[in-house]
C-alpha cells in the first residue's frame, strides 16, 4: 500500500510541476476511448481541439463522432440564435402562446388590485 501512495505522490508532483502532461497519449487507445466516452459534449469538443492524436482517437469511435458532430451543430445553432437578436425570438414566442385551462386570467394593467 505504501508503494501506491508513493507512486501517486510522484505522479501528483509531476502534474504540479508540469501542467502540460499528456496522459491520454500514455494509455492504450481503448482506455482513452473510455475516458472520452464519459465526457460531456462541451468537454468532448474541447478535447477534440487539443491535438490531432486526440481527434483521431475520438473519430475512431462512431458513438463519439456522432456526439461530437451533434455538439458542434448545437454550438453553431446557439451562436446563430444569439446573433440573430433576442427581441425577434421573444416576439415569436408571444404569438404562439395560448392560455391553457389551468392558467388563470391575468388582471389588466389598468386595474390596481391589491391582495
Automatic annotation (TrEMBL):
> What InterPro entries does the database record attribute to this sequence?
F-box-like_dom_sf, F-box_dom
Q: What is this protein called?
A: F-box domain-containing protein
| Positions of transmembrane segments | none
Lineage here is:
Eukaryota, Metazoa, Ecdysozoa, Arthropoda, Hexapoda
The UniProt annotation puts the region (Disordered) at 78-115
Amino acid at each position: 500500500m505504501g508503494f501506491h501512495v508513493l507512486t501517486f505522490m510522484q505522479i501528483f508532483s509531476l502534474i504540479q510541476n508540469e501542467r502540460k502532461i499528456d496522459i491520454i497519449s500514455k494509455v492504450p487507445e481503448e482506455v482513452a476511448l473510455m475516458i472520452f466516452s464519459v465526457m460531456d459534449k462541451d468537454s468532448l469538443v474541447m478535447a477534440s481541439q487539443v491535438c490531432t492524436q486526440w481527434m483521431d482517437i475520438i473519430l475512431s469511435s462512431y458513438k463519439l463522432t456522432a456526439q461530437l458532430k451533434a455538439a458542434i451543430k448545437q454550438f453553431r445553432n446557439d451562436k446563430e440564435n444569439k446573433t440573430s437578436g433576442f427581441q425577434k425570438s421573444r416576439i415569436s414566442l408571444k404569438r404562439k402562446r395560448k392560455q391553457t385551462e389551468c392558467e388563470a386570467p391575468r388582471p389588466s394593467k389598468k386595474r390596481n388590485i391589491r391582495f
